[in-house]
Amino acid sequence: MSFRSDNAAFEAWLRRRCKVVEKDLKYKHERMKESAFAFLRATFFRWAKRIETVCPDLATAPAVLSVGDVHLENFGTWRDAEGRIVWGINDFDEAAVIPYPFDLVRLVTSARLAPGLTVPSRVIAEMVLAGYRDGLEEPRPTLIDQHGLWMGDYVSGTSADRRAFWDDIKALNKKKAAAKPIPGAVKQGLRRSLPADAEVRFFAPRKRGGGSLGRPRYIVSAVWQGGRVIREAKALVPSAWSWAKNEKRPQIHFLALSTGRYRSPDPFLAIRGKFVYRRIAPDARKVELDREAQAKLPERLLRAMGFDLGAIHAAAGKKTVAAILADLKARPADWLNEAAGAAAADVERDYAEWKR
To answer: What pTM, to 2 d.p., does this model score?
Structure first.
């Protein structure tokens, strides 16, 4: 089936599970033309449909509760219950039980498709895989002040980044009058996410994301203890892996993965009804790499990404970890690089079709 046919079928499926924001979906379609990397971010549903055909030798590997839509920009920061800044994968919308190699393949594929890449593809695969093994064997969260002091340039954000965050919130306040009414249950959920004595200033819809563009997303802005606090609500639907496999009763695994054994989760992260709620702030955000950072991709950053993925998979337990390590040992040395090359070529064919 062509990409366009799958895209139409998936969007029809999505409309049955949430009240799609059609103008945001149209914006997503335009963003998908920007680059193969942006296209990959927006089309996990197609990846889920195609990857077992593209890499059939990986489809029988041990299955584990997986991230699904893991890529270079599915990493960010948050503060845990102790107030520590944690770095790692921070979007689990597409969590599903998947053969473990496909998370690795998607991460390396995203790096191969990064605009202006200068790092050899073989090095990318080697670093991600080395970090992944470490994460399986000695899993833990990545605490910036203890394990990632070198990450400052990638996670702290500049003063310009902080200004941009608050400018974005200010712009939402100006646009809220023209927006459609926010569902009462979502407003209630957002209020519940705030400190009890916070003073609500406004609610507004928000347009953000890659693959999630089109799903309803809202924020509340409030004042508490002399400063602004922001909470976000995003519609949560089953993983597109469920769509690709035509599952009749799909489960949502978002919280199971985001609060797993080796995570140090965001205490504000919660699911209420059909929405996921979280704190957003300049220090609790998705880390989007600029073109220069994407092109250079330092080896230790790639290794850290692999480590966090390994720590997430390690939560499956000792038997599953042993099975994964045995499977890794049995594979050829260059298997990940070759699989990511095949997957990248498949994505680029779909991207070329979409641009036409």
So the answer is: 0.94
